[in-house]
Each structure stands twice: as C-alpha cells, then as structure tokens.
Amino acid sequence: MKEPGTLLLTRRDVASLLTIEDCTTAVERVFKMYGEGQTSPPGVLGVHAKDGGFHIKAGVLELDRPYFAAKINANFPQNSKRFGLPLIQGVIVLSDAANGYPLALMDSIEITIQRTGAATAVAAKYLARPDSETLTICGCGNQGRVSLKALANLFPIKTVFAYDSDADQSQRFARETSEEIGISVEAVDDIETAIVRSDTVVTCTPAKEFFLKQEWIRPGTFIGAVGADSEDKQELESTLLSQNHTVVDMVEQAATIGELHHAIEANLMTKGDVHAELGEVVAGRKPGRSSLDEIIIFDSTGMALQDVIVAAAVYERAVGNGLGQSVDFGGENINRAGAA
Questions:
Q1: 233 an active-site residue?
Q2: Rounded CA gap, 110 and 205, in Å?
Q3: For 245-285, what is each residue's pLDDT tens digit?
Q4: Can you tell me the distance from the alpha carbon of 178 to that of 170, in angstroms, rounded to the nearest whole number?
Q5: pLDDT at residue number 338
Q6: What are the phi and psi torsion angles at 276 (to 5°)?
C-alpha cells in the first residue's frame, strides 16, 4: 500500500481545524487513557541555548489507528522584543505508528497553546470549586487568552483580573478579551489585590523567580501553574505546593522541570508527597477536590500525549477537508491535498 504523501499544515491551517472545546474534550480523553494505563510512557528532552531553549516531546497513542508524534518547540522569551517573533515556535511530526510513515508535518504553535489551555481547563474541572466566579490570569499572552476562554466555558466566571509585567499588554488583553467573551476583564498593576479575591488563578509566564506567594491564597483556590516547563523557570513559592494539595500532569516530568522540581530542591517535598497525577483523577483512581476549603495546585509541564491526540485530530480533519499540501519526501512531486 502506497501512502498518499506527507501533509504540510501551516498555523493558519491548524487554527481553522481546531477549537478549544474540541481540544479540551481530546485532552480529557488522553489524560483518562494515561490514568487507566492504556498508553506507553511519553518522552521529553530539553536542550538549552543562549537566551532560550528547545523541548522535544514524543509519544505513541492507539486511537482509531496507531499514531506517533514528536514535537520540537523553541522557547525564546525575548523573541518579541528582539526579533518580532513568537515566544514559542516549532513543528510536530505525526507518523503512522504501525509502519513509521510520516503522515504530516504541522506548525506546533496553535496546538501547544490550545492543548495547554485545555489541560488547565480539564484540571480545573476536577480540582476547582464548581462555583468559581473570580479568575486571575498572570501572563497576558496567547496562553492566558486561551486559558481564559477554556475556563469561561466551564465555570460561571463573572470577574477576571489580568496581570502582566508589561502594563500595556495587560490593558490590551483586558480590552480585547472583554469584548470577545462578554465578561468583565480588568487589567491590574497590583497582583496581590487580585489574587486575594480570586477563586482560580492561572500563571502562564516565563518567570524565573516566583511571584505568587502562599500568604495571598485564600481557602478553596485552584491554581493552574503553567509557566514552569524547564528547570530554571518558577512562578510559585514552593511552600504553596508543600503545604497544599499538589496534582501534576506527570510526576517524573514535574520533578525535573516543573514547580515540583523547586519544592524538591528546597527539601520541602518528595515525589511521594504529590497528591496525584491528573490522569489518575480523571480516571477516578484518586480523588480530586474533597472539600470547598482546600487549596489545590496543578503543576502543568505539558505531556507529549496531549500533542499526539490533538495532532491526530487535526490531521484527520485536514484529510477530510482537503486542506494542506501533500509532499512525497521520497520523490519529487508536491500536490494539493486530495489531488491526483
């Protein structure tokens, strides 16, 4: 059987095929599969570069057909100011896990943003108070925007505070998202004032020193800690993890590159102190929230299986819609998808 070629998909292609609602459903499914032991362990590799770094995340999933995906993401926090480029850039290679054929090569930005926001929403679904009405977003970039949209789909959010180290960015974020989702979004300069009033907090910054303090967090708060995805990044005071319930996407990964890494380095926690992996909660193997007053932290470092399931969905939709370019890497022909 001859494969039709490798599909090339741009960020615009991917965005046209992916919604945060569909992405959240897919990510919840893959966390459940992982929690039930239906998946092989995914892999991750980090490589440092001057002023940034690269992450390689890979995994295999048995869906309607077996898929393998590997994502190469570059993360350079000063890109916007220095080069006018996105903070995160990269590609995903999606292959047939039965024979190794490269099915697609697609831009990774949209998938990374949406699957990360979806993971925060899935975690909040199981770990946040169901009556959560006040949300603070720390970090007003694309990730903050998607996280807000994903959470607004699940909770009766009435008030949103937006904080960013760049005041112009937070003002623009507040103005645009207020119009987009129809919820009051207020840009704030004083993060403490916002946090002490919040039921839910999402941190999605490239910070290398913690800014979220234990003393600011009121009982019952859910914190989605998204920014720490390498060992030099930190957004939360480590006592927040050690003195409250900590749920992670993957223990080993969080212990190496997440907020958990810093708590372990400070001798405040061990891996055994983690309450659960999110997949265990979604699969019903461990409890999520057990009282209205407990503070719960979700340490999100980005699980490769999220990329696999979302990339597979994008590929299948692209094929169904005849979107993208088909390239025969073993030959010389380049055709539009679906062309003879």
A1: no
A2: 17
A3: 999 999 999 999 999 999 999 999 999 999 999 999 999 99
A4: 12
A5: 47
A6: -170, 160
pLDDT of 196 over the 70 cut: yes
Q: pLDDT tens across 307-331, in order?
A: 999 999 999 999 999 999 999 887 6
Q: Choose, from 57, 71, 125, 233, the residue flagged as catalytic.
A: 71
